[in-house]
């Protein structure tokens, strides 16, 4: 039984790893439900997020990550390890592409606890899969209006929990589905997007959105295959549609996921 602790919501800090923006949108909606849309932010998506320990202000943190292969992306784990919770309550969110969230939410909860946060609520939400495209739509457009409404309502429930008395019982890890030990991470595919030189205008946007320093731009676009996490941020951000993952294995996987993830899934919440 976890010890009850006195907690007050106060300000809300958003902490997110969100290469394509879907996780960030869910966290913003939860914060709106808590009545604090203008929250402090710690964006750990890009390498420029900062070095050394980061300390949220007092109040409550909402921490969100995407799910890659049923796990928290290793790069997100690394960057979250620089954030110290200092005993403040935390809402934990895993956003997956309509297949399954597997061990990711439990993994995030344990990681947040190790960093000094006190988990009080968790949620698994759906976002458009990173492999989704015109030919292989996988949860396209999600989070949609219904998802955002659910996130806001979740925020309202979290706020009521935090305001419910002099003490709030933290959420137990036993309440969160997942395996220990966690499932293995998917191996690095060692691939990168390909550039269509007839479309590329050398704007450099792809470099600025890449979370893993896979892309370098110095008058030309070059890649470091060992770094790519297949987040597709560069593909989805290119204004000219000049980037694409062309490997047949990835295209086959996208088609498989399209069929596997056709049935709509709904958010799952734990308070």
Stated plainly, the CATH topology of the largest domain is called Rossmann fold
Average residue pLDDT? 91
Number of helices: 7
Sheet/helix structural class: alpha/beta
- C-alpha-based Rg, rounded: 19 Å
Question: What is the approximate shape?
Answer: globular
Distance between the termini: 15 Å
Written as H for each helix and E for each strand, in order along the chain, the element string is EHEEHEHEHEHEEHEHE
CATH class of the largest domain: Alpha Beta
CATH architecture of the largest domain: 3-Layer(aba) Sandwich
Oligomer: single chain
Number of structural units classed as domains: 2
Characteristic terms for this protein:
disordered N terminus; Alpha-Beta Plaits; 6-stranded mixed sheet; globular; 271 residues; 7 helices; single chain; Rossmann fold; alpha/beta
What does this structure look like?
- There is one protein chain.
- The chain is α/β, with parallel strands linked by helices and 271 residues long.
- It folds into 2 domains: 11-182 and 266-270, Flavodoxin domain (Rossmann fold, 3-Layer(aba) Sandwich), CATH 3.40.50; 194-246, Alpha-Beta Plaits (2-Layer Sandwich).
- Helix content is 26%, strand content 18%.
- It contains 7 helices and 10 strands.
- It has helices spanning 22-33, 74-80, 104-114, 145-162, 205-209, 233-237, 248-260, and strands spanning 11-16, 40-43, 59-66, 89-96, 118-126, 194-195, 215-217, 221-223, 243-244, 268-270.
- The strands form 3 sheets. It has a 6-stranded mixed beta sheet with strand order 2-1-3-4-5-10, with helices on both faces.
- Helix 1 (22-33) packs across helix 4 (145-162).
- The model is unreliable at 1-7 (pLDDT under 50).
């Amino acid at each position: 039984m976890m010890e009850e602790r006195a907690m007050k919501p106060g300000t809300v800090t958003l902490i997110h790893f969100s290469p394509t923006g879907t996780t960030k949108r869910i966290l913003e909606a939860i914060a709106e439900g808590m009545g604090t849309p203008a929250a402090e932010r710690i964006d750990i998506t890009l390498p420029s997020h900062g070095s050394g320990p980061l300390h949220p202000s007092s109040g409550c943190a909402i921490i969100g990550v995407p799910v890659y292969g049923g796990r928290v992306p290793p790069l997100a784990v690394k960057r979250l390890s620089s954030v110290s919770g200092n005993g403040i309550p935390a809402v934990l969110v895993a956003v997956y592409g309509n297949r399954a969230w597997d061990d990711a939410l439990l993994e995030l909860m344990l990681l947040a606890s190790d960093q000094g946060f006190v988990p009080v609520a968790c949620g698994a939400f759906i976002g458009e899969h990173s492999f989704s495209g015109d030919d292989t739509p996988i949860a396209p457009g999600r989070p949609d209006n219904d998802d955002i409404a659910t996130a806001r309502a979740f925020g309202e429930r979290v706020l009521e929990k935090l305001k419910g008395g002099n003490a709030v019982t933290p959420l137990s890890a036993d309440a969160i589905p997942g395996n220990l030990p966690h499932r293995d991470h998917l191996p690095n595919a060692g691939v990168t997007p390909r550039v269509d030189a007839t479309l590329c205008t050398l704007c450099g946007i792809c470099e600025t959105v890449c979370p893993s320093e896979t892309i370098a731009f110095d008058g030309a676009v070059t890649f470091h295959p060992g770094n790519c996490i297949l987040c597709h941020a560069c593909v989805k951000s290119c204004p000219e549609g000049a980037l694409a993952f062309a490997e047949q294995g990835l295209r086959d996987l996208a088609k498989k996921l399209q069929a596997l993830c056709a049935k709509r899934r709904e958010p799952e919440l734990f308070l």
